[in-house]
Protein 1
Amino acid sequence: MDKKRGLVFMSKKHSYEEKLAIVSQKKEGTRYSALSRHYGIDRKMLREWVCKYDLYGEDGLRKSIYVKATGSFKEEVVRFALNKVVSLPQVALHFGISRSVLRSWMRIVKEKGYEALHDAVKYGRPSKTMGRPKKHKPETELEKLQAENARLRAENALLKKVEALVKERESRERKNGWEPSKN
């Protein structure tokens, strides 16, 4: 939301053709404020599109391909951003990354130092090897008997627990004056 004017901008993906048409209108002299109001796009985003167009031509408006940044690349970008008098959006455009990613890397450096940029961050669901270990199939007769003994003990404990629960339910039913079921 634009706090000065109370405008609400919708977050929507824009096609390459839409971006190119809007940038060409800006190049023809239309003001950012007019374009922003007409299309409902934040001025910063419009400026970014124009800068990308100026730097890279029409390819700058196409959707960029995701490239996994290495620790050394991250460090280079953050050092460049901290040592230069160029604004963060310009640094982000220069290196082809988003401003939010650049801010995130800079925050990591401030909190943990440059070495933290080299740490591998694992995203997504953990691998299946993290869960329950695979069952070991007993090979010798002794291992087979031990496995069967463990299974029977677990089964016996389960039956005792079920019996206790049934007795508890029946005593509650008797206490309330109900007849226990014969099932």
Protein 2
Amino acid sequence: MKPNVVLFDLHHTLTRTKESTNSMFRRIVGEFGIDISALSDSELTSAHARSNDWLLRYQLENNVGPDWGERAEQWVEADRVMYEVLGVSGLSDASILEIERRWKHEITSGAWESLHSEAKRVLSQLQSRGYLLGLCTRRYDDPTPLLKALGIRDFFSVVTHSGVPGYAKPSPYILLRAAEELHANPRLCTYVGNDAHADVEAARRAEMRSVLLVWANPDEGRIAQSDVTVLSSMNELLEFFPSALAPNQ
């Protein structure tokens, strides 16, 4: 039997970002009267990394589940670590919570990401050719509101997500969960992503076929192993799947 399930990553696979995370952070905290114009992007990145280190320890020590992180209040302590590293003091928990809610709104509403111009046509074509489609993404927030805002939710028979280490890619957890919900053997699934480590490795661990789509970052294709299928455009998905994977061929 040939694979007839196609699972997709989201960020930089089906969507493109409108600005960098540092730019978005500067803009959002600015709306709350916090001036971080004197801080460089490297300082912001370092502060986020310190916060993520704290968050990793917290999540493992507290054995949080795969859906942890969807509520804004869960982020207050980690955010406070970040602000302390940045030298931003005097913020109340209520203020941090409101900033986090604003951040989550950007992430889930489509304000930060836009759909690749060819994505909807490609998804529609694959669906019309008999493929079951799913979405498996490494993020803390349920992507369903974003998929609805982008007009592509109805293409997917299953949507799974997690940003929690141990569940998030490169763990195969969300890929295997999607296959189970579709009642599909993982070996009859293909995972399409953009990251040569997280996406390809997750597919490998799940025993799924892997396709690396590198329109957003061609460098990922250069570091991929030789047995990985690398495509440089969305349109190539339509050329690849019928010739290699169409279920009725």
